[in-house]
Amino acid sequence: VNLLGRSVTAAADYPIVLLRGIMIASKACGGIGGEMEKEREAKVDGRYIIFYTFEDEGAEATERSGEEGSD
Amino acid sequence: LNQLRWDPTLGEWVTYATHRQDRTFLPPAEYCPLCPTEPGGFPTEVPRESYDIVVFENRFPSYTPGATEPDEPGAALTPTAPGLGVTEVVLYSDDHDATLASMSERRIRNLIEVWADRYEELGAREEVEYVFIFENKGEAIGVTLHHPHGQIYGYPFVPPRPKKELEAARAHRDEHGSCLHCDLLAAEHADARRILHKGEHFTAFVPFYAHYPYEAHVYARRCVPSIAVLDEQERRDFAHILKRLLMGYDSLFGFSLPYVMVMHQAPTNGGEYGNVAHLHVEFYPPNRTAEKLKYLAGSEVGAGAFIVDALPEETAATLREAVERGA
User: Fold this and answer.
1) Inter-chain contact A47–B57, Cβ cutoff 8 Å?
2) Helix axes B232-252, B105-123, angle to 10 degrees
3) Would you call B106 and A70 a contact, using CB atoms and an 8 Å cutoff?
4) Using one digit for the tens of pLDDT, what is the confidence trace for B217-242?
5) What's the alpha-carbon Rg for chain A, to the nearest Å?
6) B241-275 tens-digit pLDDT
7) Where are the alpha helices (DSSP H) in chain B?
8) Substitution target from B52, B89, B200 for chain A, most A beta carbons within 10 A
9) Which of A46, B71, B125, B145 sits at a 20 to 30 Å CA gap from B210?
10) Among the listed residues B91, B22, B31, B95, the one whose alpha carbon sits nearest the alpha carbon of residue B56
11) pLDDT tens for residues B165-204?
12) Cα B324 to Cα B145: distance, rounded to the nearest angstrom
């Protein structure tokens, strides 16, 4: 139980995806007007890692090179 | 080992994570564990050649979903508990030398999306009572890795400082029927001397009661409990004002300013304080001048009473000029 006395899911039950490159979610992003892709993988020691990729990454690269304004 | 011990004198939990003594400490840039893994290079935390924004579980967690009952049983007066929770690292960019201040507004907007997603996902975990998004920047703060990154703690309790703030907000609502933070923001707008920048949906200011000379708060103008409920225009303006303030900080003394950045929002423990939370970000730079740092010493550490040697109106004027200069 947690500190408020509620039951807590055992660690082994956490939804860690074990296969590399499986897309977990892709959703429209209010702030960027595009899509955010979310991929969850597991490291060899069991820790998860999540890759967030944004549809506007190309624009970001352009922006980084100074060819576009900040917005 | 992740365990909590109750301090009955202050009424708060203290967390013990002894494995953190062995965490990586200021490695050379070529061995940065937060950079992408180069082909044939040493394996970092990120097994890809490039990335946009990455979140992973900290190798040296303060809280972990796998925490077990402590070997030390404690006592009725001083109970113990497992250090359940989540400790995540958020990599803002694969560019080792970038800082949040140097990033584009577009990237900061993307980061806001990630923060909102983490708030929702971690907040949905039953053992997580409070999702705490923060960044420690600079060696003066004690940072052990320079790569641009922040952290997220999913606490199994509402931590003391947000709890104290939430209780003050609840008392204010009970007495006045209004949001404490909305009223504070209205007072800052009316006074105007400590305002750093007013966006369409967010305002940055040095609070009337700042604990650090160049402390700054960024408040949502709309009374929203969390980052997750911001709409498109609010997220854009949030990114814009963070960028403006961060550039101002770097312009203040002419170097990349260290700071602690924290986000306060509604606990995720089922609504205990949900109706009084108001999303805001607080920045605590340790510098009181270019060369001198504000140290927490006897009065601050032992008495909890801050002594500040500069008035907020004065530092706000200086910082406002820096924000305008840095734009």
Assistant:
1) yes
2) 120
3) yes
4) 999 999 999 999 999 999 999 999 99
5) 18
6) 999 999 999 999 999 999 999 999 999 987 778 68
7) 105-123, 160-176, 180-191, 232-252, 312-326
8) B52
9) B145
10) B91
11) 999 999 999 999 999 999 999 999 999 999 999 999 999 9
12) 30
Question: How far from chain centre, in Å, is Cα B96?
Answer: 21
Distances (CA, A) of B289 to B257, B292, B294: 11, 5, 9
- The pair of structure tokens assigned to B37 is 């893994």
Strand partners, B17: B2
Q: For A6-62, how does the pLDDT look when each residue is reduced to its tens digit (9 = 90+)? A: 333 333 332 333 333 344 455 555 445 568 899 999 988 889 999 999 986 445 544
Interface test with B, best of A32, A38, A65 (most B CBs within 10 A): A32
Cβ separation of A51 and B230 shorter than 8 Å? no
Element (H, E) at B41: none
Interchain CB distance below 8 Å, A60 and B59: no
Active-site residue among B149, B217, B240, B264?
A: B149
A37 touching B, CB under 8 A? no
Q: Which residue has the tokens 């890692």?
A: A49
pLDDT (average), residues B9-33: 78
Q: Which of B265, B218, B263, B207 is nearest to B244 (CA)?
A: B218
Helix, strand and coil in chain B, % to nearest 5: 30, 20, 45
Q: What is the pLDDT of residue B268?
A: 93
Burial class (CB in 10 A: 0-12, 13-18, 19+), B19: middle
Q: Is B172 a catalytic residue?
A: no
**pLDDT recorded at residue B114:** 97
Among B54, B81, B117, beta carbon nearest to A49: B54
CB of A63 within 8 Å of a chain B CB? The answer is yes
CA distances A42 to A21, A26, B81, B259, B321, Å, are 10, 19, 27, 32, 47
B56 close to A (CB below 8 A):
yes
pLDDT attached to residue A9 = 36
CB contact under 8 A, B106 and A6: no
Burial status of residue B141 (CB atoms within 10 A of its CB: 0-12, 13-18, 19 or more): middle
Beta-carbon pairs below 8 A across chains A and B: 110
